[in-house]
Amino acid sequence: MPYYRRVGDVPPKRHTQFRQPDGSLFAEELMGQEGFSSDSSLLYHTHRPTAILSATVVTPFATTRAPNLPLKPRHLQTHKLGGGPSDAVLGRQHLLANDDVRLSYAVATAPSPLYRNAIGDECLYVESGSMLVESVFGALPLNEGDYAIIPTSVIHRLVPVSGEVRLLVIEASGHIGPPKRYLSRRGQFLEHSPYCERDLRAPSSPLLVEGTEVPVLVQHRRGWTEHVYAQHPFDVAGWDGCLYPWAFSIHDFEPITGRLHQPPPVHQTFEGPNFVICSFVPRKVDYHPLSIPVPYNHHNVDSDEVLFYTGGNYEARRGSGIVQGSISLHPSGFTHGPQPGAVERSLGVEAFDELAVMVDTFRPLDLCEPGLSVEDTGYAWTWARTV
After folding, report:
1. Which family does this protein fall into (predicted)?
2. What tens digit of pLDDT does each residue of 79-99 get?
């Protein structure tokens, strides 16, 4: 993260004696990235964070992947996914994946188990509803349109606040953060960035939970394990540092516009290992007198492009079958662009009212079985329709 936070009680000097009211020492835990060479935080536990009572191999769900063969654009209709009431961890339905990133969709009506992803960071996007990310760092409220970045190995659970929560989940093989070009060499957001520190939210107070023999699900590079902790891991009296869960609303993303159509990098919001995440938000569009506001036909030869349509009216795709909750996949090896008729309809338009999350990957994406089960199989041929 680009800046320091301090929450709860911490001693004036790190790695020194810090005692609880009964005279016993707090148990200090350093959580850090890249082997002590990158961002970190220090947490002060009332119990030992190392005390586990058992470890058991578990298989919460099967994961299947198949290559995009024959190569073609795909349209996945997430609102048609089956399954009953579930939570935002065990209820994830995997849609697209490669060795760098996995995209899933969840409809959560119940709290998740305590969970730790030891493979990489997770980015949650709330399509609808409200929820809490409860973690060793405290509670972080999320609402419609919020992104949340949960760093690798943070123990947390996802708790719907009221009713149903719909989520897009992006699981990385490494770390997710703001694009480097937005940051100074010391980590401050620069003036050309479309968002800044004032737009970010993080836990503001400790979350203390009592309990013994507490199970925690761990997703790791060899599978899944359930650890049973002697004491509840939410026992942190204070922490400080630059590594913690944080949230940012897509509604606070300030779009960059110009006289002529701007390319997708102006919408970039986060970057991860071999992928980027972009936000398309309501905005004024091109103001050259002869401009064409919708995108030109384009082929990003190094990327598979995924768009999650999450609000408004996506003008360039009218007539393709795209609706709220749709996910399109436009793979490398295919030239894509506006639907027939969209270019003419856009002439003279001054603003677009659209909301979408884009993920561009730099290695091809495979298709997962839940995604294939809700595919609109006629999508690839919609550019050939006459208007």
Report:
1. Belongs to the homogentisate dioxygenase family.
2. 999 877 799 999 999 999 999
> For residues 40 and 31, is the Cβ–Cβ distance under 8 A?
yes
Token pair, residue 350, equals 């001054």
Q: What would the pLDDT profile of 227-267 be if each residue is shown by its tens digit?
A: 999 999 999 999 999 999 999 999 999 999 999 988 889 99
Determine whether 29 is exposed, middle or buried from the number of CB atoms within 10 Å of its CB (0-12, 13-18, 19+): middle
Q: What is the pLDDT of residues 290-339, one digit of tens each?
A: 999 888 888 888 999 999 999 988 777 878 899 999 999 999 999 988 88
84, 93 Cβ separation under 8 angstroms:
no
CB of 152 closer than 8 Å to CB of 119: yes
DSSP-assigned beta bridge partners for residue 326: 77
- The dihedral over CA atoms of 326, 133, 188, 305, expressed in degrees to the nearest 10, equals -20
Residue with tokens 């290695």: 363
Q: What 8-state DSSP symbol labels residue 355? A: E
CA 325 vs. chain centroid, Å, equals 16
Helical (H) or strand (E) element with 369: helix 369-373
Tokens describing residue 31 = 């959580």
Residue 329, token pair as written in the block = 């996949």
Q: What are the structure tokens assigned to 292, written together?
A: 């064409």
Tokens 């590079």 correspond to 221
pLDDT, averaged across the chain? 94
For the segment 162-190, the average pLDDT, to the nearest whole number, is 95
Strand order in 326-330's β-sheet?
74-77, 326-330, 304-312, 354-361, 275-280, 268-272
Quote the pTM value: 0.96
CB atoms within 10 A of CB 190: 10
b/e map 54-87, b = 16+ CB within 10 Å: eeeeeeeeeeeeeebeeeebbbbbbeebeeeebb
Distance of alpha carbon 153 from alpha carbon 165, whole angstroms: 23
